[in-house]
Amino acid sequence: MQTKDVILQLRTKHNMSQDELAEKVYVTRQAVSRWENGDTIPNTETLKLLSKLFNVSINTLLGSPHDLVCQCCGMPLEDENISKEKDGLFNEEYCKWCYADGDFTMDFWKQYIKLGGKEKFEQFKQQIIHEFNTLLHIEGLPKVTDLNVLSGSFINLEYRLPNGQMVKFLDDNATYLGSQLECEFGGDRCFGIAANMEFLLVCTYEQDGKNPELVMYKKR
Prior knowledge:
This protein is α+β, with helices and mostly antiparallel strands. It has 7 helices and 11 strands.
């Protein structure tokens, strides 16, 4: 869908005339008409006003030209789960669970933002990727190319130790760098990896995390 069609659809959905929409975003009726005819598109500042007015992302207003993903957890972003700033404007880099009201919600991400910003965080992530790829040498584990920030409550699986005891190694309330990887040999089991400043963890499991087995837990 093109921008002209999106604006027309949103305006009619909200029962607004061209004059009424023009007044709310501080342009002329002729400007709205030109948008809806496809002659022009709104400038950046007007797109922000339209985004806030209609509660949709700028990406949607532009006809969804990009596949957006959260830069924190990797979740695909759609209008209903995109984060917002304190002023109500969409922040199209993060989902609403990782970033809300102008601040990061996840402790792990917050920590590295405070230590040195996104660049520092990215350096740490690349170091973890390097350690997974060079230190563990686990058969069937493919090369790690990226990691997402994940909530402990989603990945804190319970493993059976050789003595029969059931244990969890993570904290439900913490966040970790991790990912899911397909085994190089195929089959119905996947690798799950997780890490923080203190350890690297590798496990395998079936679909939906069933029948997990701990492969390695290594102190850093």
